[in-house]
């Protein structure tokens, strides 16, 4: 049955569906970068509220700033912006259809429709899932990369912006000029201090063309930090077939694990839905939650994924089934990551690690090593290298973290140990591949990629251990290096 408003009532009784009248939803949120994670996470929390008759004036309008987003727009509009969510619980699967999204804006080079919509009085939150690499960060100065071609374009043509931040600045300018209040910009990406990073990006860009506007955004807008957590695999033919097994023809279904967590700083300048009534946590201390999650889960993904790619292991769950990889994961975590993680009110770091091991081991979640290893250019500086820097400063253990970096370098050669090819897996693959090839003869050359490693290339212990591990991987293979690290 093709998913649509007209067919909701005909779905099998075992499938959850909106109990609210979708015609009564009015817009309140524009979400940019609308993909699987948003629909399984933020949109689900809003759906849960609407099921209780709440937040009906916080409907979601989808948007995108990349040409590739147009395909998602077409798929969702063809099914009235409904989404089938399939929970992959090891004890049993379940499906529900959610409906808080009510429109998807045209994807345009100049973002004109997006700017007009965000400038409307009804919109009070603009939310983002644009991936860690979508923030145009300059690792050297820890801020917006003003030299990036897209940012330079937006500075030269603020009326026809190319980036999400240029579009936000243009919309806030229209609101100010019309006497409307600023909207909240809510990052839902895996960045520690994501609200602060987003504020810096928007305000810095605005300063280049209109310092008074920049000050107005900074003083009257809001950019709450948040921690988001739910493992959501990519959708492919298997996921579409799974939706069909429930009797639903959905061209963009979402599968997800049986776990969600959302921690938010309660700093909104134009109101917000009562997400806490659906299980979100509002707190003044997001940092502790996001630090634990990013270091144990997100960095933990990188501990596994590159080794898994080299060893032709298809999924993260399969990595956890491999005794050597599972032991490697636990030892790096306990010896080198957990010492730099503090407890939060509900959870000690050791207990969180046990939870993550169980979540990663869920055989129902076909989360591919390729997806998790994608965009190491953003993920290693965002997730792994801050831990390594902490360890260097505190003279803590670094051997496993250096091995993790060596595994990434070897993965970027583009060849698995069985001789099969690893297809380009990074937005800057050509540069990563070139550095990896150079590092085969001169290992330290990998660390000399200054936008990624900065001053870590000057830390003698890091250079020595990284070089040792990369040389061993190259000469004896990945498993030999893992066994030596574990003392086997």
From TrEMBL:
InterPro entries: 6-PGluconate_DH-like_C_sf (IPR008927), 6PGD_dom2 (IPR013328), Mannitol_DH (IPR000669), Mannitol_DH/Oxidoreductase (IPR050988), Mannitol_DH_C (IPR013118), Mannitol_DH_N (IPR013131), NAD(P)-bd_dom_sf (IPR036291)
Gene3D superfamilies, sorted: N-(1-d-carboxylethyl)-l-norvaline Dehydrogenase, domain 2 (1.10.1040.10), NAD(P)-binding Rossmann-like Domain (3.40.50.720)
Mannitol dehydrogenase N-terminal domain residues: 28-276
Domain of life of the source: Bacteria
Region (Disordered): 417-443
Top class in the EC scheme: oxidoreductase
rRNA-binding is among the record's keywords: no
Every Mannitol dehydrogenase C-terminal domain range: 285-469
Keywords carried by this UniProt record: Oxidoreductase
GO molecular function, one term: mannitol 2-dehydrogenase activity
PANTHER family listed in its UniProt record: MANNITOL DEHYDROGENASE 2-RELATED, MANNITOL DEHYDROGENASE DSF1-RELATED
Name by which UniProt lists this protein: Mannitol 2-dehydrogenase MtlK
